[in-house]
Design goal:
By secondary structure, the chain is an all-alpha fold. It is built from 5 helices and no strands. The longest helix is centred in the C-terminal third of the chain and has 19 residues. This is XRE family transcriptional regulator.
Length: 84
């Protein structure tokens, strides 16, 4: 669940900056297919990759994590989800 939320928020930031997956992947020095899988919640990025993506998007890693946390908590409250 958190992977999906992270990917969706990351995708929203990328699209808001009008970047293609290719552009963001190049700027973050990662493979485009890996970025695609992260955005779809299939793969989990390392902390180093999270920082690289955030710097490429010109956002603070802590801000991105805060957004993910807020959305996760909102979903838990709305859907009464467990911590799994």
């Amino acid at each position: 669940m958190i992977e999906n939320i992270f990917g969706e928020i990351l995708r929203n930031h990328r699209k808001n900056r009008k970047l293609s997956q290719e552009d963001l992947a190049l700027n973050a020095d990662i493979d485009r297919s890996f970025l695609s899988e992260v955005e779809r919640g299939i793969r989990k990025p390392t902390i180093n990759t999270v920082f690289a993506l955030c710097y490429a998007l010109q956002i603070k890693p802590s801000d991105l994590i805060r957004e993910v946390e807020e959305e996760y908590e909102h979903n838990r409250e709305t859907h009464h989800l467990s911590d799994d």
